[in-house]
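Anyone up for a design puzzle?
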């Protein structure tokens, strides 16, 4: 009887991880479907969108309601250290004049090696693209990571 309980618990635990994994894949897949969409401040459609709209739509695809504004998104989920970022985590940056004010965000799409953390975001000059968090521009402006799932 004890073995049966252990097997059931292992199955349920694995099913939970599979569901989480599938949700993360869906978030990244949805975000990537917007690649090439032009940047538009306050925009929320494929005609033009900003970084917070990209996050909003990607997480909405799995039924997670996210705030529409980057500063509010940066308060959701659990804090994650730079070295512990994983696919699906949110990353936040201070790209404006104030060094501690969240002004930009993205979703981690891949982690490979110590200095290769790719994230998708809506760049004001290039639209929705993927970039390396460890590029000199972004690593200097990185503020925090958050885990939603």
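Challenge accepted. My sequence:
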């Amino acid at each position: 009887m004890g073995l049966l309980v252990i097997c059931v618990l292992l199955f349920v635990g694995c099913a939970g991880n599979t569901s989480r994994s599938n949700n993360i894949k869906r978030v990244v897949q949805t975000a990537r479907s917007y690649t090439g969409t032009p940047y538009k401040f306050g925009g929320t459609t494929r005609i033009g969108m900003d970084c917070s709209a990209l996050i909003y739509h990607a997480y909405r695809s799995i039924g997670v309601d996210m705030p529409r504004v980057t500063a509010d998104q940066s308060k959701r989920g659990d804090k994650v250290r730079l070295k512990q970022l994983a696919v699906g985590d949110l990353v936040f940056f201070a790209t404006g004049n104030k060094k501690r004010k969240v002004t930009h965000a993205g979703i981690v799409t891949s982690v490979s090696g110590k200095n290769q953390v790719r994230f998708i975001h809506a760049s004001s000059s290039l639209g929705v693209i993927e970039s390396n968090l460890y590029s000199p521009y972004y690593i200097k402006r990185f503020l925090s990571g958050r885990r939603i799932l």
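A detail worth pointing out: Confidence is low (pLDDT under 50) at residues 1-14.
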